[in-house]
Amino acid sequence: MPDLPQKKVGLIACSGEDHPLGTLSRVAVRLVLERLRPNDTVTLCLPLFLAGEQGERAFARFYPTIAVDACGVGCAARATARYSGPVVRAINLEQLLAGLGIEVKASWKHDLDEEGLAVAWEVAEIIARQVDRILGKEGREVSPEEPAAVGEVATCSCGSGIPVLRLNVDGRTWELLAVPAIFSLFREQGRAPSRQVASELLAQTRLYNAISPQEEGELLDILEVAYRDFWEGRLKV
Amino acid sequence: MTERVLIIPCSGIGKVLGSVSREAAFRVLEELRPGETETLCLARLTLGDPDAQEEVRAHPVITVDGCTKGCARVNVEQAGGRPAASFCAAETFRRHRELRPTSVLDLGPGGKALAGRLAEEIAVQVDRLLHAPEDRDA
Q1: Exposed, middle or buried: residue B44 (CB in 10 Å: 0-12, 13-18, 19+)?
Q2: Residue B52: CB partners within 8 Å, gap ≥ 6?
Q3: What is residue A118's three-state secondary structure?
Q4: Which residue among A2, A45, B56, B111 is least crowded, i.e. fewest CB within 10 A of its CB?
């Protein structure tokens, strides 16, 4: 398999600066990233979908993503869907806390008091259970965990780059996740371009991209040409 | 003077300097220049919310970013706004290496002091935008 980021669950916080639950969304998400599920979650700053690059926009197509919004406007869920990919879960904190009978304090907009922090932990536990469900790890204890390795805590995905190959062919733009890493791996293995190698490239590409049966023939041709160009130094990835 | 300055900080949770930028923005909004400044959720700009876009086009805007990615500035610009000033917490930290923040969740004394320095710089800029310099000290 190519050397790609480990499959984790993506968490996108709304982080609304002008909403009493913006800070709570940030703190709750951060508690999951740092304390509850440090080995299974990754984040990206929502505004990076506009300010960032292709690898950052590929975030929700690579990581199954939970959006944690403060209110019903749903900026995190909607912006993620618009610029990256649909989220697998969308949490609306206003609705969630109303359901739990928790009253929101205006002062939480800037800072969480002891009560606000307790609510953030409660929300973090709910998010952690959703993470477990997505990863098929239900039933785990929801308590602080140690990160698997030093430096692996609370991974921010910005700049880490999910590799994306963007190709314009006959007026259509193909955005193919993971293909640069797959090409590099094949070259390292000395796999010279051929139709057979192109079929194997397609099989690997299919693992990281949704490709319809109707597109497979065209994509096979595209990968064969692109990999030949890469092999011969005409295509940089 | 009824004009207000919009202070739009980074909303990132991945890096500690994002938290510093927000803390600085809240200090200006709540302590240093209340009544003269407002904020709006950066995420609304990312989403392309028309009301948020109108606000950044209609008011002087100061963006306060955590890192050089400049999400706040870029999102304001993409919404059609032109920031009157742009700050970056990473730049402030470069000038005050002794003020080291602890973590994203808890800035600690160093991080809070760093946010304080940045807040003072932002407040000076607010005054420049709203008042003649002699009207008030930061």
Answers
A1: buried
A2: B40, B41, B44, B45, B79
A3: helix
A4: A2
Amino acid A52: pLDDT? 76
Rounded (5°) CA angle A184-A8-B101 = 100
Q: Is the pLDDT of residue A176 over 80?
A: yes
Is pLDDT above 50 for A152? no
| ipTM, 2 dp | 0.85
Query: What is the spatial distance between Cα B131 and Cα A161, in angstroms, rounded to a whole number?
Result: 44
The residue ranges of DSSP E strands in A19-163, in sequence order, are 41-43, 65-69, 89-92, 155-156
For residue B29, give how far its alpha carbon lies from the nearest alpha carbon of chain A (Å): 10
Closest residue in B to A82 (Cα) is B47
Residue of A nearest to B27 (CA): A110
Confidence tier at A18 by pLDDT (50, 70, 90): confident
Domain regions of chain A by residue span: 9-135, 164-231
